[in-house]
Amino acid sequence: MSNVELLSPAGNFEKLKIALAYGADAVYAGVSHFSLRIRSGKEFTYESFEEAINYTHAQGKHLHATVNGFPFNAQIPLLEKHIERVAAMKPDAFIVAAPGVIKLAHKIAPHIPIHLSTQANVLSYLDAEVYSDMGVKRIIAAREVSLKDLEQIKKHLPHLELEVFVHGSMCFAYSGRCLISSVQSGRVSNRGSCANDCRFPYTLYAHNEESGTLFRIEESEEGTHIMNAKDLNLSAHVKEILDSGVIDSLKIEGRTKSSYYVGITTKTYRQAIEDYYANQFDATKYTAELDTTKNRGFSDGYLVNRPFEKNDTQNLAHSISEGTHQVVAQVSEDGTTCLCKDVLALHVKYDVVMPAHLSIEAMDNDIGTIFEEDGLWKISFKQLQTPNGKAFDEIHSGNVNAIVLPTPLPGFTFLRAKIKG
């Protein structure tokens, strides 16, 4: 069995570089037009998107372009031009949700493979066969599908590639087909501008129409986050997924998430995949790193359990938590300096989190020390100074001065600290 693909989000060019550095085999990204993440898509112009595709290919890896919005009639001429322009950049696939767009993409760019978006809701081999007949190369399975059902799809359609989400945000609505944001704020989720209204706190009331009395059902200053789905985390089930032999790609959600999130999730699932093929998979090994990212609490979703078999997919207490660690700095691409993301202080030990398969050596000089402690690489600054010699006792996020490192570190390394409490 060939190794499974690890597919990571690329919300902008820097995150794309981080995803590839931290172990992704492929990334998915898009220009804002007709993508279901308009905010992240705005990070790319046509020119920078073409540069990103070329950069990815130079790494020997793949880029899947998102064209997964649901267009109206008035948008079709613009959509045609968009597909033609992006196709000329030679992405490795188009991610498409609407059947009409599949047909249009095949007409304009028959050489670009089509991957069917999860929002197409494929749950059975009957639906998969229809899309396969339309020329779709890969199905990105509905979030609600089970691994057993995917095994049946592969049995009936062995030529069809299957991709599943293994980590990231889960939508309150069925396969993400949500209208809450549209109703409450006029931002249309299915065209890429979801306002995440399901994450808000809501308070429930009972109203007596005869008396006009209004009763508050639950006493709480914040109300309850009754529609707030936990985040998906299938790291403990990677072995089970790969043992099935039917999954071609493991996908991480998160084009609007932080650079640190992209790096940590990619590196962790890269490790889980490599451990599997080396017969060293340990389901307890990956949780700690994923817990360092901001999350809404974790659930293993529905791939290995039916929805009616569990009642732990909602986080009713809060919309997001900080995770166990805070990123304090991010190392520049050339590895010589870092930018503060929280608070950097003198003589404080910070974790050094590097891209996949890279290592460093211990050292000590006038600027700082790098050393290994409890199995983790650490850094401590004796001086916080810019390349032109400006010195600080402490530096906070928002300060755009680059800080010199004691020694060059791998590009896009993160420095982090454990959150107290």
TrEMBL record:
Superkingdom of the source species: Bacteria
GO annotation, biological process: proteolysis
Record-linked PROSITE patterns: PEPTIDASE_U32 (PS01276)
GO molecular function term, any single one: peptidase activity
UniProt keywords, alphabetically: Hydrolase, Protease
Family to which this protein belongs: Belongs to the peptidase U32 family.
Protein name: Peptidase, U32 family
